[in-house]
Amino acid sequence: MGAQISRQIQVVLEEQELQSLEESRGTSFPGSNIKHPNHKEWMGTLDLGEITAREVVWPGTHNSATDRIGIPFFTRPFFQCQKYSIYEQLEKGVRVFDIRVQQDRKVCHGVLCTYSVDIVINDVKRFLDKTSLEFVILELRTEWKRFDPLRFDEYLISQLGDYLIPQDEQLLDKPLRELLPGRVFCVWKPSIATAPAPGSPLWTGDHLLDNWIDTDLPLTKFISNLEYLKKQAPNATRPYFYRVENTTTPQNTGIWCVYPVTNRIRGYARLFLAETFRLGLGDQIQILSEDFVTKDFVDACIGVTMARFALSKQDLLQPYQWLR
């Protein structure tokens, strides 16, 4: 009990430090004033003849397909990290998804599983069918201590077909328009099965990296995210996508529900982006993910992406003029 009380005091102190940091340094960064008028098709409003996959700041979600996991009010609060379906997240502007699966192709988070991955794939295909210039990074991996789904690579290729962008690191330097009709970077990270080979329609786990820190302490996570980001090469030179997860995770401290724990850091995504630019890391940020995604979070990522191409406020007032 004493250790739990001590931990909660540490949590409060770290929350206060983050709040003080935000008050003293602010949350201004290039593009921080941008509020995009069309989250469903925001990528289509970029100059796709110029921008590459490396240059986008991709808004992502953590444990993306957990909206219906567990039993409501019973087990769900301990495992749910998102309240929207994959399709709803796509409509809200999310473009990177973290999907964990097990042998029977059900989506998992820890010891619980939820619906079939078919629902995820169908949501992605439905969204792509209804849009023409939106791109997605879809990461699928076998959950820890679970077995790989049988011939899962073949399943993904058969389902996503021409939407898949083949594994070729040189394509990261190509303007997005040149990747069409491909619009999905599909990363498959099995536990034991053979990883996708170069030239495959699927990408390996080595093409989407992060440094996940398992902590419920918000300032500790915030600082560690910055420190690991400092160690990354600039976007223009590395052969992989790099993800920062703006999340905190329940620990053995008496609070087991995901929402109140991750909420300790969730509101500081804009502060994190401001700090990356203050520290000269603006050209290293690439994927930013959070739990229980919000419109403001997506706008922050879109804003940095657009600022990289110096789109003005006047452009935003006439959004369909900059459809290329």
How many β strands by DSSP?
9
* Number of helices, where a helix is a run of at least 4 consecutive DSSP H or I residues: 9
| Beta-strand proportion | 5-15%
The rounded Rg comes to: 19 Å
Protein name: Phosphatidylinositol-specific phospholipase C X domain-containing protein
Pfam families: PI-PLC-X
Organism: Ceratodon purpureus
GO molecular function: phosphoric diester hydrolase activity
Description of the structure:
The protein is built from nine helices and nine strands. By secondary structure, it is an alpha/beta fold. The strands form three sheets. The chain has a four-stranded parallel beta sheet with strand order 1-9-8-7. Strands 2-5-6 form a three-stranded parallel beta sheet, with helices on one face. Strands 3-4 form a two-stranded antiparallel ribbon. It is globular and about 55 Å long. It starts with a helix and ends in a 7-residue tail after the last helix. Mean pLDDT is 94; it is low at 311-324. It comes from Ceratodon purpureus.
